[in-house]
């Protein structure tokens, strides 16, 4: 484990907000355990162990019924930890894998049978080495026949250059963490407006209203981030997802309490109808439609 690594909170509070039946934590990860499921040699960080048993324990404690597990960059394109968790979940988890353009159709079909429903393209340079867009497009064309989608992670400053690529993908696209807006600029700033227009112009683009702990400049209770998430939920109630991001990789400022994160949900989705779409209907439609 890296010497400055912050481990997940082992004792989160019980949320005051009661999740609706069927709620999905639609963005979380597993790390190892390294002794059984090793980390990738090319990784940019070495985390603590945070395996499937801890994830499922948190799921039950917070009141979720299902998870969407996203391949962690510390495991690279070795999806064994992800698939191991999906196998153990008994249908209560789906996965987002990381693959290269050389991936074979047979391997994709095997991952599909085990619960994978998408791939992640990471453009954050401090986390992964750069990948040519042509390679990403090859992957997208291979997964499209399976009905999978693409999850994209990028910094807000990179959005203008990425818009043509995102609009050209042949699958639905899910943007991680609201495209990482600079929350000091406010929801009326042209930078955030550019992201809103992207979603307005392309009905295939979804958004995860997640990770206030990463975006905040003020810290808990994340008052500076709530307006951004609330605006996206208000405008696009049928194309939003929510997740904890457990075990919160690469946090440097603080480690959030997952129960307190759940308690933010009614602040970004104030009425029961939007809460059910955010937490149940939308993730079920995207991940459990078949």
UniProtKB/TrEMBL annotation:
InterPro entries: Amidohydro-rel, Aro_Compnd_Degr_Hydrolases, GLI/LigI, Metal_Hydrolase. One of its GO terms (molecular function) is hydrolase activity. Residues 24-287 form the Amidohydrolase-related domain. It comes from the Bacteria. PANTHER family: BARREL METAL-DEPENDENT HYDROLASE, PUTATIVE (AFU_ORTHOLOGUE AFUA_1G16240)-RELATED (PTHR35563). This is 2-pyrone-4,6-dicarboxylate lactonase. It comes from Jhaorihella thermophila.
């Amino acid at each position: 484990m890296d010497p400055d690594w912050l481990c997940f909170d082992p004792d989160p509070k019980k949320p005051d907000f009661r999740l609706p039946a069927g709620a999905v934590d639609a963005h979380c990860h597993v790390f190892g355990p390294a002794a059984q499921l090793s980390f990738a040699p090319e990784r940019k960080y070495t985390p603590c162990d945070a395996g499937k048993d801890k994830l499922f324990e948190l799921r039950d404690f917070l009141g979720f019924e299902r998870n969407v597990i996203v391949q962690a960059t510390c495991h690279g394109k070795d999806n064994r930890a992800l698939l191991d968790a999906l196998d153990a979940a008994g249908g209560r988890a789906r996965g987002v894998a990381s693959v290269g353009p050389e991936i074979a159709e047979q391997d994709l079909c095997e991952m599909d049978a085990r619960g994978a429903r998408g791939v992640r393209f990471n453009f954050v340079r401090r986390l992964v080495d750069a990948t040519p867009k042509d390679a990403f497009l090859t992957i997208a064309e291979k997964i499209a026949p399976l009905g999978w989608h693409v999850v994209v992670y990028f910094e807000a400053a990179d959005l203008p250059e990425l818009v043509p690529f995102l609009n050209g993908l042949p699958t639905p696209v899910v943007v991680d963490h609201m495209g990482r807006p600079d929350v000091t600029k406010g929801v009326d700033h042209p930078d955030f407006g550019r992201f809103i227009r992207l979603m307005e112009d392309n009905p295939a683009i979804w958004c995860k209203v997640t990770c206030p702990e990463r975006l905040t400049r003020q810290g808990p209770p994340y008052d500076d981030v709530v307006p951004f998430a609330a605006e996206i939920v208000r405008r696009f109630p049928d194309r939003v997802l929510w997740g904890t991001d457990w075990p919160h990789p690469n946090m440097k400022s603080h480690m959030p309490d997952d129960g307190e994160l759940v308690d933010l949900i009614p602040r970004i989705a104030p009425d029961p109808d939007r809460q059910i779409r955010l937490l149940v209907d939308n993730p079920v439609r995207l991940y459990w439609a078949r």
